[in-house]
Amino acid sequence: MKDSMLELKKIIAKEAEKVEAALEAYGQSPDEDLQILFDAEAYSLLGGGKRIRPFLVNEVCRMLGGDEHASMPFACALEMIHTYSLIHDDLPCMDDDDLRRGKPTNHKKFGYANALLAGDALLTKAFFVASSNPYTDRATAADAVVLLSEAAGEIGMIGGQIMDLAGEHTKLSLEKLHRLHSMKTGALIRVAVELGCLAAGYAKESAEMAATVAYAKKIGLAFQVIDDILDVTGSEAELGKSVGGDADHEKTTFLSYYDVEGAKEYAASLTAEAISAISELKNSEVLTDLAVYLLERTY
Description:
There is one protein chain. This protein is mostly helical. 70% of the residues lie in helices and 1% in strands. It has helices at 2-26, 35-45, 52-63, 68-89, 106-110, 112-131, 138-152, 157-166, 174-184, 186-199, 207-233, 236-239, 245-248, 260-277, 285-296, and strands spanning 99-100, 103-104. Strands 1-2 form a two-stranded antiparallel sheet. A hairpin with a 2-residue loop joins strand 1 and strand 2 (103-104). Helix 2 crosses helix 6 and helix 10 runs antiparallel to helix 11 (207-233). The two termini are 20 Å apart.
């Protein structure tokens, strides 16, 4: 397992470089009057990170025999939406964070208004990039936009953020906490595998889509459980962002219901279920290793 983890880290790093190059190509400023906007977008969009969501898009497409030329625009669109959410999540009206990926947050670097608009621009650009994918047919691109809209909107990430705000200073039930994170964190992880399936030519009703979605739901929840643990046990230097924010905002987290060891065991059980969900799919070894990697991460 150790050797496979080392190999996976190399694969993730190589994939992140390809995604970074593709994102940079989408971010060229066409107008010097708009330079500060494009600079603010690039500051967060090209600020590093493991690129797990675009990795999932491209890897699912490859696993199912698709061409990553078809999946890369969808992968970039998803990363734009993820980045916009991070910019807005860090704003004073939300989590009011000063640090992201080891650097000052976007609003600390460019000011509140420019950060807000940079996030808005990335969200809008994401739909343009997905809808104009030159390597898929128009129907597939349209399906991708629908899925992205659902994942990012009221019944997805934004709805989850609303529930997250409601969970400050008021303890949510465990059932609501699960729903919150299936929307806030899980929706973008789920749509990553859906986009990968679409790019590979698999319909929303296919068995392959069902299996990878089941996998994504479990790793998405496990990802959040580990995040909650790291917010308590991690260091700012390792994580590249502020720690202890959940406690500062009196948020309901999985550590509101489990101690650290219990939460780790729960995340491990979710990971096992994720691996089981894709066990019948050919060439699923990388996704299996990824589930373990996300479980064992320390940053």
